[in-house]
Amino acid sequence: MKKLFTICLIITFVNFGYSQEEEASTDSAAMALKDTTYWNSELSIGFNLNQASFSGNWKAGGVNSFALGSILSGKANYAKDKLSWDNQLELIYGVVKNDDLGLRKSNDRIFFDSKVGYKITQKWGYFASLNFITQFTDGFDYSADDPVLISRFFAPAFLTSGFGFEYKPNENFALRLAPFSPRFTFVTDTNLINTVPGNYGVPEGQKLRTEWLAFQVFMTYNKKFSDNLTLNARYQIFANLETLEFRTIDHRLDFTLIAKITRYVDVTFTSINVYDIDMVEGIQFSQALALGILYKINNKK
Q1: What ranges do the domains of the chain cover?
Q2: In the 8-state DSSP scheme, what is residue 102?
Q3: Cα(29)–Cα(116) distance, integer angstroms
Q4: What is the bridge-based pairing of β-strands 65-80 and 229-240?
Q5: Could you report the per-residue pLDDT of 154-168, keeping only the tens digit for each?
Q6: What is the phi/psi pair of residue 214, to 5°?
Q7: Which DSSP string do the residues of 2-71 spell out, in sequence order?
Q8: How many other CB atoms sit within 10 Å of the CB of residue 33?
Q9: How far is CA 291 from CA 54, 94, 142, in A?
Q10: pLDDT at position 128
């Protein structure tokens, strides 16, 4: 935890240093951050519900089912002159129940990303960032007769920092290149190694793995094609330079497409694709398609 504290402290100092270059004094910097003129914030809350039931003599066949999904996402971005501070949060959770099967989750994600940037040209700048990924509740493998616990809150959890250069040619696309990108992998339940032999890369009997010498590429593409269609995509590459091989490079692609039907009703397609040899061989993927209610507020008139 001392190492984790050191990383957080470094980012704090970097942020402080940028603020000092941008503002004449600490007081003026604080007043600028409070000025909502330089903030772009947004909050979205969504729910979707699916249900189906059949009588016992329904000859076409079918399974009684019930599914509920929820999403909360928000952003708070600050920009003034050369200084910027971008924050993004995504909380997604869903459950499903099919006939006599117990309640099972269909979606589960916690994601947070924070980045401080400082422009050196119109399209390039320095940055320091932190992003965090984990889940809310226990995850199980249902392939056997009895469910097997394979994950839970903070088991695993990934805290990845990044220090480097950012290329941002427009408002839709951003590319971060971080030649120094330490990552911390948490598995707070040491018993998971009994069902997950690789233990998500954390050594047996320990709860934390630290990868200091690492490189990261982080790309985002957010495009509003029209008032009714929005695409959000995020791609992350992480490479531990101490154990660098092609097969050990981690990849993660998050993809969300939102199509609005009415002001509050929308269709949302989400997909998560992960390649991480410390988790499992091969590519993991999940996808969900939902019709539901989405309410969005922002600070723009």
Answers
A1: 36-298
A2: P
A3: 14
A4: unpaired
A5: 999 999 999 999 999
A6: -145, 160
A7: HHHHHHHHHHHHHHHHHHHHHSSSHHHHHHHHH-GGGEEEEEEEEEEEEEE---TT-TT----EEEEEEE
A8: 15
A9: 21, 13, 26
A10: 98
281 forms beta bridges with none
- How many CB atoms are closer than 10 A to CB 148? 13
Judge whether 140 and 106 are in contact, CB under 8 Å: no
Is residue 104 pLDDT above 70, yes or no?
yes
70 has which bridge partners? 47, 93
User: What gap in Å lies between CA 124 and CA 115, rounded to an integer?
Assistant: 14
Using a 10 angstrom Cβ sphere, with 0-12 exposed, 13-18 middle and 19 or more buried, the burial of residue 248 is middle
Q: What pLDDT, in 10s, does the model give residues 248-257?
A: 999 999 999 9
Q: What is the pLDDT of residue 4?
A: 45
Average pLDDT over every residue of 213-234: 95
Report DSSP state, residue 301. -
Tokens 């600490």, residue located: 26
Q: Of 188, 177, 175, which Cα lies nearest the Cα of 215?
A: 177
Give the three-state DSSP class for 202.
Answer: coil
Does residue 216 contact residue 181 with C-beta atoms inside 8 Å? Answer: yes
CA torsion sign for 226, 232, 233, 238 is positive
99-128 residues labelled b (16+ CB within 10 A) or e (exposed): eeeeeebbbbbbbebbbbbbbeeeeebbbb
pLDDT in tens, 108-137: 999 999 999 999 999 999 999 999 999 999
Q: For position 91, what pLDDT does the model report?
A: 96
- Architecture of 36-298 per CATH? Beta Barrel (2.40)
Task: Return d(Cα 136, Cα 245) in angstroms, integer.
Answer: 32
